[in-house]
Design a protein that fits this description.
single chain, about 300 residues, alpha+beta, Alpha-Beta Plaits, four-stranded antiparallel β-sheet, copper ion binding
């Protein structure tokens, strides 16, 4: 078996140490390491895997903050760039940071960054790593206590030719909402201190399954949400806002200029006639009582 070995600085010390490490692997009969050729040739039993030999080399301390690397001759050593779309993030500081940490800790990942604004994670895969896009998606969706969803954002990131990118329709996702019964509500949101807070609330609402649109106004401390009634309810929308640290309730006493007033006005219209009818009844009764008492006086 032949390995490419990187990181050696001499034959006498580095190559000799690597040769000893390879020969110490159970099942290896002999090993020859050449500093000049940057290679190792290993004679071993069929039971010995390349992974064991590579691990033996990489586990050695190369000193001076250096490290040895080894891989099978012929392996692809180019760096891969993968981009994933991430849904469900509501802020940069917490959500995006957790996604970035989970990706960075995945075996074979050299670096990872998360663009919260565009909901895209960019991952640099180490040369020779066998980690796949599916592995990275699982790493994101397995984050404890979160419900992130991830998918391949740009499958052609490693082949940026214009005609190839333009001819890749799977990179574009079109969501068509079927004709369903919709509702809308205006929520009062307490606890926002800036427009960034409003953006976080808006993002959390928009990321909720069943929400068709959401607009949050920091100045009026309100959130107007349009939603599919068969998928999400008002109570759930309130809980979404409360889950990210703000207080929320259905707005009351909104005036004609407030978005979402129409559903509230319809709700109050049922009880509004009851008050005038009661007053008319009391007024009529008083007039009759006065008429009966007048002759006696």
């Amino acid at each position: 078996m032949r390995l490419v070995v990187k990181g050696m600085r001499c034959q006498k010390n580095c190559a000799t140490r690597i040769q000893s490490a390879l020969e110490a692997v159970p099942g290896v009969a002999s090993a020859s390491v050449s500093f000049k050729d940057k290679a190792a040739t290993v004679q071993c039993d069929a039971s010995v895997s390349a992974v064991e030999l590579i691990h033996a080399v990489r586990s050695l301390d190369a000193g001076a903050t250096k490290s040895f690397d080894a891989y099978m001759a012929g392996d692809d050593r180019s760096v891969r760039i993968v981009q994933l779309g991430v849904e469900g993030m509501s802020c940069q500081m917490n959500c995006a940071a957790k996604v970035q940490a989970a990706l960075s800790e995945a075996n074979g990942v050299q670096a990872a960054t998360v663009d919260f604004e565009h909901r895209v994670a960019t991952i640099t895969i180490a040369p020779g790593s066998r980690i796949t896009e599916t592995d990275l998606i699982v790493a994101i969706e397995s984050i404890k206590g979160k419900k992130f969803k991830a998918s391949v954002h740009d499958p052609s990131a490693t082949a940026p030719a214009v005609h190839e990118t333009a001819a890749a329709p799977p990179a574009v996702t079109v969501v068509v909402h079927p004709a369903v019964e919709t509702g809308d509500v205006t929520l009062t949101v307490v606890g926002m201190t800036c427009n960034s807070c409003a953006n976080s609330v808006e993002t959390a609402l928009r990321s909720t399954d069943g929400v068709l649109s959401a607009v949050v106004n920091f100045a009026t401390e309100s959130a107007y949400v349009k939603f599919a009634k068969d998928k999400v309810g008002i109570r759930s929308l309130v809980e979404v806002v409360e889950a990210i640290g703000y207080e929320a309730s259905v707005a009351t006493g909104v005036d004609d200029s407030c978005v979402g007033r129409e559903p509230a006005r319809r709700g109050r219209g049922v009880e509004a006639p009851a008050v005038p009818l009661a007053l008319l009844y009391l007024s009529d009764r008083d007039s009759h009582d006065g008429a009966r008492q007048h002759p006696a006086s």
